[in-house]
Amino acid sequence: MVRVSVVGAKGRMGSHVVDAVKGAPDTELALTLDAGDDLAAITPDNTDVAVEFTVPSVSLGNVLVLVAQGVDVVVGTTGWTAEKLDKVREALAAAPRKDQAVFIAPNFAISAVLADHFATVAARYFESAEVIELHHPTKVDAPSGTAFHTAQGIAAARKAAGLGPVPDATETDGGSRGQVVDGIHVHAVRLRGLNAHEEILFGNAGEQLTIRADSFDRTSFMPGVLLAVRKLAEGGHAGLTVGLDHFLDL
Ligand SMILES: NC(=O)C1=CN([C@@H]2O[C@H](COP(=O)(O)OP(=O)(O)OC[C@H]3O[C@@H](n4cnc5c(N)ncnc54)[C@H](O)[C@@H]3O)[C@@H](O)[C@H]2O)C=CC1
Ligand SMILES: O=C(O)C1=N[C@H](C(=O)O)C[C@H](O)C1
Question: Is any ligand 1 atom within 6 A of the Cβ of residue 146?
Answer without folding.
Answer: no
